[in-house]
Design brief:
127 residues, alpha+beta, Beta-Lactamase, 3 helices
Length: 127
């Protein structure tokens, strides 16, 4: 399955709550981005979140906290989830939902997507 197809499945399954999804790397590059509103800048989102990811990964390594399952950021307008892909993760699956969105369903969709993306990236030699 293509990266875009995985992101479209997330969007289709979370249509009421969905704001955006993407696949971003620790290098700041996004492999794919699927905003509900196409005018949103995926490059800027990926670049800004990369700084957060690098800081979190450094913290996880420094305190030897074990495997990172996902990262949550809650703001006044959005709930942001980042799921690692691979071990050690070089890419993350991003999902942004509305503040009143269903968190359990969002996590379930990301778990499914991360597994599928992991397999796709292994076949593409990206992880």
């Amino acid at each position: 399955m293509k990266f875009e197809d995985v992101l479209h499945d997330i969007r289709d399954n979370l249509i009421r709550d969905y704001v955006s999804s993407g696949i971003i790397g620790l290098n700041g590059v996004h492999l794919s981005f699927d905003p509900a509103k196409p005018e949103k800048n995926g490059l800027l989102t990926a670049a800004e979140l990369t700084d957060v990811l690098k800081d979190v990964m450094q913290l996880v390594n420094e305190v030897e906290s074990g495997r990172l399952y996902y990262i949550n950021l809650y703001t006044a307008k959005f709930k942001v989830f980042l799921f690692p892909i691979g071990s050690p993760p070089r890419f993350f699956c991003l999902l942004i939902i509305k503040t009143d969105g269903n968190v359990g369903k969002a996590i379930l969709e990301l778990e499914r997507a991360a597994e599928s993306l992991q397999q796709d990236m292994e076949h593409s030699c990206l992880v």
